[in-house]
Write a structure and sequence with these properties.
- By secondary structure, the protein is mainly alpha-helical.
- The chain starts with a helix and ends with a helix.
- The protein has one domain (about 1-250).
- The chain is globular.
- The chain contains 12 helices and no strands.
Length: about 250
């Protein structure tokens, strides 16, 4: 139990900017539990989003959508957006493989990164607004961040790693198929509350398959930035899938 609690704290410290001044041991057991807790961290983020969505029901929909998007970016501290921007600059360079890796590691931000960031946030905000106006279930906001973080675990476990070094390689050593099942377990009840929940999980799997193929083709494998970007891309894809479900359901 102590290792599980340490793992949850590690996951919160790594995936969010929620201040938790607790020193946790980093070992195989706590790392494994941290990975299992990724969807739980997503549920916490989703709970805060759902709470804001319910408290802000009296606001105009565009303002509430912007507030939700702002909170969604603030809680992880833009951690995964950084990965999106690094990948955008690397792919936009059309450079050879080793040069793409060097660009991805470069801390400077290029024009491709800015363009992708603007369009990603614009699409995300527009879809949030569309779902608010469609009267989507508050359970949706709870589930979306959790699903995308579970998707990151799937990608990390199933896709080939580009290099045997770095954070992704370290995490991968402690992630088995059994851990994926335990990570998914807390999400299972929500499939009964969220209309089209199974559809969203299926859509996420399609995204991960296509995204993983594209990243392996471009970089010969995945790394930490690519896994982090999968969270942002997964959220956007599932938002689009949720909107399509509500649009067809109410048409």
């Amino acid at each position: 139990m102590k290792e599980a609690l340490y793992g949850l704290v590690l996951a919160l410290q790594f995936l969010t900017r929620i201040p938790l001044p607790i020193a946790c041991p980093w070992n195989a057991a706590t790392c494994r539990w941290a990975l299992r807790c990724y969807p739980l961290v997503g549920l916490l983020i989703g709970a805060l989003l759902a709470g804001l969505a319910m408290l802000g029901q009296g606001l105009p929909s565009p303002l509430l959508a912007l507030a939700l998007l702002s909170l969604w970016v603030a809680l992880p501290g833009g951690l995964h957006l950084d990965g999106v921007m690094d990948i955008a600059d690397a792919l936009g360079s059309n450079a050879p493989l080793e040069r793409r890796w060097a660009i991805m590691k470069d801390s400077q931000v290029g024009s491709f990164a800015i363009l992708v960031l603007v369009f990603l946030l614009a699409w995300k905000g527009a879809l949030i607004l569309a779902l608010l106006e469609a009267g989507a279930s508050p359970w949706l906001w709870l589930m979306l961040p959790a699903l995308s973080r579970f998707g990151a675990l799937l990608l990390l476990r199933l896709a080939p790693l580009a290099r045997r070094e770095g954070l992704a390689w370290t995490w991968r050593q402690h992630l088995a198929r059994r851990d994926l099942g335990l990570a998914l377990l807390p999400l299972l009840p929500f499939f009964g509350f969220v209309p089209g929940g199974a559809w969203l999980l299926g859509a996420l799997c399609v995204f991960l398959f296509l995204y993983g193929l594209a990243m392996v083709r471009a970089f010969t494998g995945i790394n930490g930035d690519i896994v982090g970007a999968a969270i942002e891309g997964g959220e956007l894809w599932v938002l689009l899938s949720a909107w399509s479900w509500w649009w067809f359901a109410t048409a």
